Amino acid sequence: MADLKQLARQIFQETLAAIDIPVTMQRKLRRERTRLVCGEKTFDLRDYEQIRVVAAGKAAHAMVEGLAKVLAPFIRFAGVVAAPTLPQKQVQGLKYFAAGHPVPNEESWKAAEAILALLKKCNGKTLVFFLLSGGGSALVELPLDARQTLEDVQQTHHALVTCGASIDEINTVRKHLSAVKGGRLAIAAGKATKITLGVTDVPVGKESALASGPTLPDPTTVVEANRSIAEYRLAEKFPATLRRWLDEGKMPETPKVGDPAFRNAHFSLLLGMDDLFHPAHRAAEAEGFIACCDNATDDWPVDKAAEYLVRQLEELQKINHGQRVALIADGEVSSPVTGNGVGGRNSAFVLACVEKIAGKKMAVLSAGTDGIDGNSPAAGAVANGQTLDLSRKFGLDPADAFRRSDAHTFFSRLDDVIVMGPTGNNLRDLRILLADR
To answer: Strand 193-199 relative to strand 265-271: parallel, antiparallel, unpaired?
Structure first.
């Protein structure tokens, strides 16, 4: 079973290695002399007097690198980049911000101001590239209400991500509170031609969830936002300035389909769910596993997701009797913070599986492709059928650790955390469940 844990780690590492953003950018965004081919759209660069770039997310640096290679050597651009860290090498013409994630910081605020100032100068002869990846919601932020401070924004963000709401509900609320989300950057860019390139594994039809949809028409409404605020009793957790703003009825509706700002706006998925599933599936099969992919648990509560996926692995085992099997799942699970421990949704998912796989020839890994899991220094964790017995020898209780939101500490004691640092990628989370014959 120790081998199963190692194989799960290996499959995860091979999957990450197969996702190369700059190479993918050059493959999917082709330049033919002065013509730029993006999906089914072709743009003649001679039609534009200036090119601007707005990059926000954990994969921002890799996306900028890829775009620079596509446009090189004669085309220059200016723009703003907001990422968790500064790049090893900066691209000339771009202004960089080491913004906050998972909580917005002062650089997140300054990045938002710089982006709005940049877009304000755009016109019909401007081509704007929006390079978006996961984490953009925190990395670029500015409230609609000018009376709110950074501390207010941080308190609001913390209330949203810890209330137990689904990611869709969280996005609905923050889109309606923000000056840069829910299509408002498209509005800010006015008549400019806008090309949004995304790195995300959000389901088809939910592209506006990426970075809270700053350049796409917002399908959510004020009514839905207020419903979530009431259901999760968020008002009492919000700062006083935001409560007053809400009480005054100041929440405006977000831009919708049909707004003129979207007539010249284009969205293309650079890397998506299939780009995560395919290399993971191939890596598992290369190790002799019969592999199956399942994305049904995206946005499920962590306990429900753990129960479902372990059961699916067992069913896969029965169908393929005598064979090693692998179940690959992606997306995010919902894991409300219920204590003051260290961890995130990935280690919490694995912790929820520990008792379910106890004594079985199984291993479970869950990790963020960005290399980060909640407030921990790890990407996630891995466990097998011996983890429960081993944890008891160390005096650890998985149920207690789960209640205290302390999954990272639990797995650290067992040397089962996955530490890799920021990867420069972000296709959300990958879960790998293995079962031996």
So the answer is: parallel
